């Protein structure tokens, strides 16, 4: 029997012993790796949840910003080459409408929006805010190069509703309205343009009040100025219908100017 050499014995011991040590070492390494992975996963999860949270907060903030509208644009002059539009939030339209009259009236005035289809008449106007004093304010008429909100009393609302419908207003008392941001309009008797960019000449009327007289007194307006360009009071029909009743427009400032309501110091 041949006795194995020492080198073979050592080699055999090393081969047998090495897997045992390697197994223990591998287990330790696996445990360490698992612990490291666990820590990394926890960190990633925390970062991920935080990112999701920040993303959600950011999305919410962006969404809020996207839906929020700068209400100051409801009264500042329009940029050149732009026109009034109905594509605004209700809050914007309310702010715009209330800028048409003095605070003592607008504080408790109702606010309504123009009907989507003007041919539907004012009965299809949408109420934006309820009022308690008999006054109604409306936002800009779309398609004008200047803000033109108005506030009207009950008689003037009756006149406006009938006039837009091409009907006789049947006015039996004086009616009043305010347009304190002024307006821009086409000439007397002009057919409203479908595209405001096609209008060759706009007449800019300064802040003004409008008065409608009873039918029995409308002859009192005979001979009153009808020129829109001289900053003087003028009469206008706003309708070509035979039954149209004129209104008296009285500017209180020049076209392109503003007036400001403030306490006396």
The topology string of helices and strands comes to HHHEEEEHEEEEEE
Strand tally: 10
Radius of gyration: 38 Å
Number of helices: 4
Average of pLDDT = 80
| Beta-strand proportion | 5-15%
Structural class: alpha+beta
Share of helix, binned: 25-40%
Largest β-sheet summary: 8 strands, mixed
Distance between the termini: 127 Å
Choose one word for the global shape: globular
Give the strand order of the largest sheet, numbering strands 1, 2, ... along the chain: 2-1-3-4-5-8-10-9
Q: Unreliable segments (pLDDT under 50, ≥5 consecutive)? A: 1-23, 40-66
Count of domains: 2
What are the defining features of this structure?
265 residues, alpha+beta, eight-stranded mixed β-sheet, two-stranded antiparallel sheet, disordered N terminus
Task: Walk me through what this model shows.
By secondary structure, the chain is an alpha+beta fold. The protein has two domains: 1-68; 75-251, no CATH class. Helices cover 32% and strands 14% of the residues. It has an eight-stranded mixed β-sheet.
Give the arrangement of secondary structure elements:
Blueprint: H1 6-67, H2 90-98, H3 103-106, E1 110-113, E2 126-129, E3 136-138, E4 150-152, H4 154-164, E5 175-179, E6 183-185, E7 203-205, E8 208-212, E9 234-236, E10 247-251
Parallel strand pairs: 1-3
Antiparallel strand pairs: 1-2, 3-4, 4-5, 5-8, 6-7, 8-10, 9-10
Concise description?
By secondary structure, the chain is α+β, with helices and mostly antiparallel strands. The chain is built from 4 helices and 10 strands, in the order αααββββαββββββ.
